[in-house]
Amino acid sequence: MQKRWAFSTFFIMVFGVVAIVVAGVNLGAERFSIDGGKRGAVAFPHHMHQEALTDCASCHDLFPKSAGVIQEMKTSGSLKKKQVMNSKCISCHKRLKKANEASGPVKCGQCHTRT
Ligand code: HEC
Ligand code: HEC
Ligand code: HEC
Questions:
Q1: What is the CB < 6 Å shell around ligand 3?
Q2: In this structure, what are the phi and psi dihedrals at residue 79, rounded to the nearest 5 degrees?
Q3: N or C: which end of the chain has fewer CB within 10 A?
Q4: Class of 26-111 per CATH?
């Protein structure tokens, strides 16, 4: 009996921690403007992607969850120019389009404001 209590208490504690972590996740801004160099800024709906993809790592395995980090990493050389655009944005949109799933833009002017 005592063992059972210890067991349930343990699970209640674990669920409590999980609930706090989930509720406390910083989802970041709803949308961003990403610097697109001479081609012009790129409007990025962040929360729409979080809802469609659910897995944060589908982007944040390449760069951390921090505002302005893509630009910083490009400046420091740890990300190449257009690396996020090609290896993340466009490759995912193309792959989903091919699979006939909901997807995003693949043409320059659909993302960049300066066409
Ligand atoms: C489709 C790509 C993508 C996905 C998926 C994604 N993010 Fe982001 N996230 C970005 C981009 C782009 C930035 C901006 C980076 C920059 O400014 O250089 C960013 C920035 C952030 C930031 C910092 C900016 C701010 O407003 O505080 C947080 C926090 C963040 N993301 C959390 C998350 C979480 C949590 C998830 C998963 C639920 C997630 N992101 C999923 C692309 C994504
Ligand atoms: C799905 C959206 C998307 C599409 C489509 C897209 N881009 Fe981009 N582009 C971005 C993002 C996001 C960045 C900034 C991150 C990076 O450099 O990887 C960027 C960056 C750039 C840069 C700046 C690189 C630098 O740092 O100097 C140029 C130039 C560029 N894109 C040209 C193009 C051209 C040309 C096309 C069409 C063939 C195109 N882009 C299509 C999203 C897009
Ligand atoms: C792993 C897959 C994936 C990655 C990575 C990704 N996207 Fe998307 N994107 C999607 C999906 C899925 C949708 C369609 C969402 C929907 O219709 O609910 C979408 C839609 C969009 C749209 C259209 C929004 C609208 O109003 O219709 C834009 C703009 C966009 N993405 C930009 C970007 C940019 C810029 C990046 C890179 C920083 C990026 N995406 C990275 C999957 C991705």
A1: 42, 44-45, 48-49, 52-53, 58-59, 84, 88-89, 92-93, 96, 102-105, 111
A2: -130, 135
A3: N
A4: alpha beta
Amino acid identity of residue 50, one-letter, is: Q
Q: Which of 15, 29, 13, 33 is nearest to 65 (CA)?
A: 29
Residue 96 to residue 94: CA distance in whole angstroms = 6
Write out the chain's pLDDT in tens, 115 residues.
566 766 666 666 555 555 545 567 899 999 999 999 999 999 999 999 999 999 999 999 999 999 999 999 999 999 999 999 999 999 999 999 999 999 999 999 999 998 6
Beta pairing partners, 31:
45
Q: CB within 6 Å of ligand 1 — which residues?
A: 25-29, 32, 34, 44, 46, 49-50, 53, 56, 58-60, 65-71
Cβ count within 10 A of residue 44:
16
d(CA 29, CA 88): 19
